[in-house]
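Entries read sequence, tokenised fold; example below:

***
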Amino acid sequence: MKKKIQIILKKDHLNLGEIGKITSISRGYALNYLIPNDIAEIATKNKIKHITMFKQIKNKEIKNSEIISKALQKNLEILNKISIRKKIGEKNNIFGSINEKDIKNKILKYIGIKIDKKQIIINNIKKIGIFNIEINISNNIKCNIQVNIIPINI
């Protein structure tokens, strides 16, 4: 009888690893603790094959999203500057403020790519002038764009 068996983790475990990891542990630990508490299951050939297939699919999706993110970054770097016209009042203050929705609509208008307003990091803009905003395309890809606020009623 084998002293160690292979298991697949169903839940994150501090000592063993994260979900989906295949590891060899002692038979008693697996049968008496991990499997009854629904932390792990016994690894069979089909289950191992199934998990490796899902990992390959996930890696392909990550690569595709990186390619799309880099293409979006190139388009945003080409754009580089957005101009928005707003009415002004006293002391060069604009009526209202510039928000993520305004930036999102201008990007959609100029390059035809729809981005989520949660990706746009913008300070409170209430005056005319040039401001820098940051767009988080993905976890590790960011792009900076200048926003030029131009007065209408001069």
User: Anything to note?
Assistant: Residues 4-63 form a domain with the Ribosomal Protein L9; domain 1 fold (CATH 3.40.5.10).
